[in-house]
Amino acid sequence: MIKSELILKVAEQNPHLHEQDAADIVSAILDTVADALAQGGRVELRGFGVFTAKRRGARRGRNPRKGETITVPETVYPMFKMSREMRRRLNPGEGAG
């Protein structure tokens, strides 16, 4: 599902909202999650999962084209861990695990 499909789904499930209002709501939620992660925070959506920002420290790498050693700067990347409820919905045949 892409963002525009999500907006349409929200608008369909809430007929009192105009499609532009649904788009504003979806954008506000996604922007809030991105801002929280950019500030090093954590976003927990009960029954869905947890978004966090992980840091990968600077390290030495190798340029595969020339074979020379290069410095790879520190990077921050998003991580997602699904909740148990989400895991059960995706894998209904599994046990309680």
How would you explain this protein's 3D organization?
The protein is of the alpha+beta class and 97 residues long. It folds into two domains: 1-39; 48-97, IHF-like DNA-binding proteins (HU Protein, Chain A, Irregular). Helix content is 39%, strand content 29%. The strands form two sheets. Strands 1-2-5 form a three-stranded antiparallel β-sheet. The longest helix has 20 residues, at 19-38. The radius of gyration is 19 Å and the shape is extended. It starts with a helix and ends in a 7-residue tail after the last helix.
Summarize the structure.
The chain is 39% helix and 29% strand.
What topology emerges from the helices and strands here?
Layout: H1 3-13, H2 19-38, E1 42-45, E2 49-56, E3 59-62, E4 69-72, E5 75-82, H3 84-90
Antiparallel strand pairs: 1-2, 2-5, 3-4
Helix pairs in contact: 1-2
